[in-house]
Amino acid sequence: MLVHLNLASEAEREDPREFEELVLSAGGDPAAYIMGQRDAPHPRTFVGKGKLEEIAAEVEANEAEVVMFNHALSPSQERNLESELKCRVLDRTGLILDIFAQRARTHEGKLQVELAQLRHMSTRLVRGWTHLERQKGGIGLRGPGETQLETDRRLLRVRIKSITARLEKVQRQRDQGRRSRRRAEIPTVSLVGYTNAGKSTLFNRMTESTVYAADQLFATLDPTLRRLELEQVGPVVLADTVGFIAHLPHKLVQAFKATLEETRNADLLLHVVDAAASERDDNIEQVDNVLEEIDASDIPQLQVFNKLDLLEQTPRIERNEEGRPVRVWLSAMSGAGCELLLDAMTELVGQDMVQEELSLEPDQGGLRAELYRMGAVQSENYSDEGKAQLSVRLPRADWNRLMKKGPEPLF
Question: What is this structure's pTM?
Answer without folding.
Answer: 0.68
